[in-house]
Design a protein that fits this description.
- This is Fibroblast growth factor.
- It holds the Pfam family FGF.
- This protein is of the alpha+beta class.
- It contains two helices and ten strands; from the N terminus they run H-E-E-E-E-E-E-E-H-E-E-E.
- The termini are far apart.
Length: about 210
């Protein structure tokens, strides 16, 4: 075997190796995209859902502790919501303060449930060009509408506004665990402001007045 044959054989091996590499890459499973710009993959957002309509009705969606859903004129702790993606374009809406899921009945009535029901508590999120969103039941296709502020919260909101503007919100600060006291501020007038020496049986002459 001369040099030309050896060189040709090596080139052939490189071609086979490259082909095997490309074939393996084509059959590999894609890595799930965790980009925060995508509305799936378990993405979680804290938002206030603000809404208005042609009659200048302005309100925030609020899930109360008793399970009622109302149109609140102002933001409150009960109107801070957690929007979590379930799959592309579908989310669940969760009340941060009341730990209730936003759900919708067959007649369009909204209510807060302590248990997540995929049929009643999954909503499609449709983005509009003006920044507002439309939410509708994934199972029923009924748009999410708030009841008018003067009507009972259990009444179907057939004429309420359906456009919502998700306003950024921050989750509440965690509460201190019971029995744990906050550290006292240092005593700047003391010779040991950080209490690094601690109590002792005797007292050093350096700290006597």
């Amino acid at each position: 075997m001369d040099w030309a044959e050896v060189r040709s054989e090596r080139q052939g091996l490189w071609v086979l190796a490259l082909a095997a590499l490309l074939l393996g890459a084509a059959q590999a499973h894609p890595i799930p995209d965790s980009s925060p710009l995508l509305q799936f993959g378990g993405q979680v957002r804290h938002r206030y859902l603000y809404t208005d309509d042609a009659q200048k009705t302005e309100a925030h969606l609020e899930i109360r502790a008793d399970g009622t859903v109302v149109a609140a004129a102002r933001r409150s702790a009960e109107s801070l919501l957690e929007l979590k993606a379930l799959k592309p374009g579908v989310i669940q809406i969760f009340g941060v303060r009341t730990s209730r899921f936003l759900c919708q009945g067959p007649d369009g009535t909204l209510y807060g449930s302590l248990r997540f029901d995929p049929e009643a508590c999954s909503f499609k999120e449709l983005l509009l060009e003006d920044g507002y969103n439309i939410y509708q039941s994934e199972a029923l296709g009924i748009p999410l509408r708030l009841p008018p502020q003067d009507s009972p919260s259990r009444e179907p909101a057939s004429r309420g506004p359906a456009r919502f503007l998700p306003l950024p919100g921050l989750p509440p600060d965690p509460l201190d665990p019971p029995g744990v006291l906050a550290p006292e501020p240092p005593n700047v007038g003391s010779s040991d402001p950080l209490s690094m020496v601690g109590p002792s049986q005797g007292q050093s002459p350096s700290y006597t007045s």
